[in-house]
């Protein structure tokens, strides 16, 4: 599936997307020897839509909140709560 914009990628409805049109994360290979920017470009070129892809038979939908809290902050909070 070809997307026209980032917004279009973000707004994919996982309930109606055809699984066979999604890239499986397991098929993506990024050369860790490349510079950071090249690794990012390679990942994006392979995954197609970084907001919606497959991991095996599971469709993954990624979204982000507009906040200053980092993933590390959230993980630390979660782990401390266990």
Strands ordered across the widest β-sheet? 1-2
Cα end-to-end separation: 41 Å
Mean pLDDT: 90
Order of helix and strand elements from N to C terminus: HHEEH
Oligomeric state of the chains? single chain
The whole-angstrom Rg is 15 Å
Characterize the largest beta sheet: strand count, sense, and whether it forms a barrel: 2 strands, antiparallel
Give the number of DSSP strands.
2
* Strand percent estimate: 5-15%
Could you say which structural class the secondary elements and strand pairing correspond to? alpha+beta
- Tally of contiguous helical segments: 3
The poorly predicted ranges are none
Helix content: 25-40%
Notes on the protein architecture:
This protein has 82 residues and is an alpha+beta fold. Helices cover 33% and strands 10% of the residues. It contains three helices and two strands; from the N terminus they run ααββα. The chain has helices spanning 6-10, 36-47, 71-80, and strands at residues 52-55, 58-61. Strand 1 and strand 2 (58-61) form a beta hairpin. The protein is globular, with a radius of gyration of 15 Å.
In short:
With 82 residues, this protein is α+β, with helices and mostly antiparallel strands.
Feature tags:
2 strands; about 35% helix; about 80 residues; single chain; two-stranded antiparallel sheet; alpha+beta; globular
Map the helices and strands.
Blueprint: H1 6-10, H2 36-47, E1 52-55, E2 58-61, H3 71-80
Antiparallel strand pairs: 1-2
């Amino acid at each position: 599936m070809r997307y026209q914009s980032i917004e279009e990628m973000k707004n994919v409805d996982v309930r109606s997307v055809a699984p066979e049109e999604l890239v499986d994360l397991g098929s993506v290979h990024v050369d860790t020897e490349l510079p950071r920017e090249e690794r990012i470009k390679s990942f994006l070129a392979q995954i197609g839509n970084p907001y919606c892809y497959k991991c095996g038979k599971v469709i993954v939908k990624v979204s982000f909140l507009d906040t200053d809290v980092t993933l590390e902050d959230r993980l630390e909070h979660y782990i401390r709560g266990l």
